[in-house]
Design goal:
Elements: E1 2-9, H1 13-24, E2 29-32, E3 46-47, H2 49-57, H3 61-64, E4 70-72, E5 74-79, E6 82-88, E7 99-101, H4 104-115, E8 121-124, E9 128-135, E10 138-146, E11 149-160, H5 167-172, E12 176-178, E13 183-191, E14 202-204, E15 209-214, E16 218-226, H6 230-236, H7 238-248, E17 266-268, E18 273-275, E19 279-280, E20 283-285, E21 291-292, H8 300-321, H9 326-360, H10 370-377, H11 379-391
Parallel strand pairs: 1-2, 1-11, 2-8, 5-14, 11-20
Antiparallel strand pairs: 3-7, 4-7, 5-6, 9-10, 10-11, 12-18, 13-16, 13-17, 14-15, 15-16, 18-21, 19-20
């Protein structure tokens, strides 16, 4: 059995950032991650200006930017063969005016490495939480399995950061409000070659939507399909799928043969939901555990990190003083619910009005909407979508205590 002040379940972006911030504040903290490492492909790899601002405020940005990454300073869409600019990060008020694309395992390994200097923080890998420990209506810890056997972690506060398929929120019986999603996404990669076009994030056709992300040596691609249509895609075969990709982006036609089978294609089952209550006595949920985000805008990792910063800002001082109450946990939801609602509302609108018609074949006309025409013409207007995507709504800044 382990006893600790705070037990964080899940070593994703929210869990690792919160662990770092609480360890930095000298709070006895334990992060439990079920995998042996952070190496999983096609996770959220977009590090937005809001996250790099946090790294700057923590004094980590210079080292962070030494990690291999690519940068995107504008967002462009191709609609019916016409390219339009929709967001320009060069005008936003941030220390880094671009989105960085970096494998999430590099980001998490970086945080883990930097966390080693904090003696109050433990990161336990291969530790899978199976249940909550409750006494007299209060969560007082978790039960977990490790390669060495069963483990109990007793804690004054348990924080669920274990993603959209959260064991914690299911075990806690918290109510989930499902906002629905009409799409799923197929992720894969294709080689990048000399002469390829510049970065165009999305290519919308009459019945296709393909995302192409320039990762320097390869294209990370996302193909949008109707919710639950993966069986039809598999039934049509990998050759038919490859032809569809070539039709959606003709410059990829000479390399779609690199997709040998559907083993090279990963399914992301998209969900958009949020808890009606993020906490109960002794327990708090943040990140995807509290609100699963659509991949639209690539904002999930950055919202999760904003949650972690807000949680540390609101709770770390009280944890230091031993003065934390259950009512204090509610402050996190009060602080973060509005930004989550705004972004989810935008994501649902994009899914319903743009992506659903495209993947269902109901998009009869590829006429460029007037507001996209305005964005393409005005650099000043392109600042505002960039600010919403890059910095979010009500961005958080580090206010939690640091080492003396």
């Amino acid at each position: 059995m382990i006893e600790t002040q705070v037990c964080i379940v899940g070593g994703g972006p929210a869990g690792m950032m919160l662990g770092y911030l609480l360890g930095r504040a000298g709070i006895d903290t334990c992060v439990l991650e079920k995998h042996a490492d952070f190496l999983r492909d096609f996770r959220g790899d977009t590090v937005h200006p809001s996250t790099m601002q946090i790294m700057h405020e923590l004094g980590l940005l210079q080292d962070f930017l030494q990690l291999p990454h690519s940068q995107i300073r504008q967002l462009c869409l191709e609609i019916g063969g016409r390219s339009v600019r929709i967001a320009d990060f060069s005008r936003i008020p941030a220390v880094c005016r671009y989105i960085a694309f970096m494998p999430q395992w590099d980001f998490l390994n970086f945080l883990a490495e930097k966390s080693r200097r904090f003696s109050t923080l433990r990161i336990l890998m291969q530790t899978q939480v199976s249940a909550l420990i409750e006494e007299r209506g209060r969560v007082v810890g978790v039960e977990a399995t490790t390669p060495d056997g069963a483990l109990q972690v007793r804690a004054g506060l348990v924080i669920g950061c274990d993603g959209r398929s959260s064991t914690v929120r299911q075990a806690a019986g918290l109510t989930v409000q499902d906002l629905g999603s009409p799409i799923d996404v197929l992720w894969f990669r294709l080689s990048k070659r000399p002469g390829d076009p510049g970065q165009v994030l999305g290519r919308l056709g009459r019945d296709t939507m393909l995302i192409t992300i320039d990762r320097s040596s390869y294209w990370q691609c996302a193909f949008v399909i109707a919710k639950g249509a993966i069986g039809q895609v598999h039934a049509s075969g990998i050759e038919a799928f490859s032809r569809t990709i070539a039709g959606a982006a003709d410059f990829l036609a000479d390399r779609v043969h690199e997709l040998q089978s559907f083993d090279d294609v990963k399914l992301l089952s998209v969900s958009v939901d949020r808890l009606t209550r993020w906490c109960k006595p002794g327990l708090l949920c943040i990140g995807d555990c509290a609100h699963a985000m659509s991949p639209v805008g690539g904002v999930g990792i950055n919202l999760a990190i904003q949650d972690a910063v807000a949680t540390a800002n609101l709770l770390a001082g009280k944890l230091q003083r031993g003065a934390l109450t259950d009512e204090d946990l509610e402050l996190v939801q009060q602080r973060r619910l509005f930004p989550v609602k705004v972004i989810q509302r935008i994501q649902v609108a994009v899914q319903e009005r743009l992506l659903k018609p495209a993947v269902s074949g109901a998009l009869r006309e590829l006429k460029l909407p007037w507001f996209l025409q305005l964005l393409d013409r005005s650099a000043w207007l392109r600042r505002w979508p960039a600010q919403v995507v890059g910095l979010g709504v009500r961005p958080e800044h580090v206010q939690s205590p640091g080492p003396d």
